[in-house]
Amino acid sequence: xxxxxxxxxxxxxxxxxxxxxxxxxxxxxxxxxxxxxxxxxxxxxxxxxxxxxxxxxxxxxxxxxxxxxxxxxxxxxxxxxxxxxxxxxxxxxxxxxxxxxxxxxxxxxxxxxxxxxxxxxxxxxxxxxxxxxxxxxxxxxxxxxxxxxxxxxxxxxxxxxxxxxxxxxxxxxxxxxxxxxxxxxxxxxxxxxxxxxxxxxxxxxxxxxxxxxxxxxxxxxxxxxxxxxxxxxxxxx
Length: 237
What we know:
Blueprint: H1 2-5, E1 12-13, H2 15-20, E2 23-25, E3 32-43, H3 47-51, E4 57-71, E5 75-77, H4 93-103, E6 107-110, E7 119-121, E8 125-128, H5 134-150, H6 154-158, H7 161-178, H8 186-193, H9 198-203, H10 205-219, H11 229-236
Parallel strand pairs: 6-8
Antiparallel strand pairs: 1-4, 2-5, 3-4, 7-8
């Protein structure tokens, strides 16, 4: 839908996101209509929820709504930094990680509708943008897996978006380096885009290491039952 409205669009974002990036939408610019996810909260009613008040609610996808974004050609302001991409051969690790996530109740699918995002985590469901290189797709999947493992409980409300994006991308960096992918400054560029910094990384180092270790263990073909819900909960706490 968005491609037919502006076939030559390259980088799109909402009005206020462009403001945060130091650019303004040109007067009279016509927005590109997209379908944006609507997230809500599902209340748990089982006996475990009654015992654990902090775990009664969980985010869920309610549907989609119309929203408008603008291409960079429709804006003016500061130049955007060029972000490096991840390179290398992840081998069969995309399939292995997908299988591991599936064993934990996290579905993985592909859709062009999430463009320009490379990946989105909905809480129990990761959607990736098709057409990425294998290295980029794997790094994106690890990033979104980081969100799923780290930011779906009380930690989501206890942290800012900057912290969450910094942690998820740091997990992608650690896993990518461990598997021999060439990340260059890609992760650093991404973290800076969200105003992340070394201090945030230091404060989150423990959960970053734990989450990266869980993902790497899943890639080593360990039985899914060896990585228990208690281990996953320890990371998210």
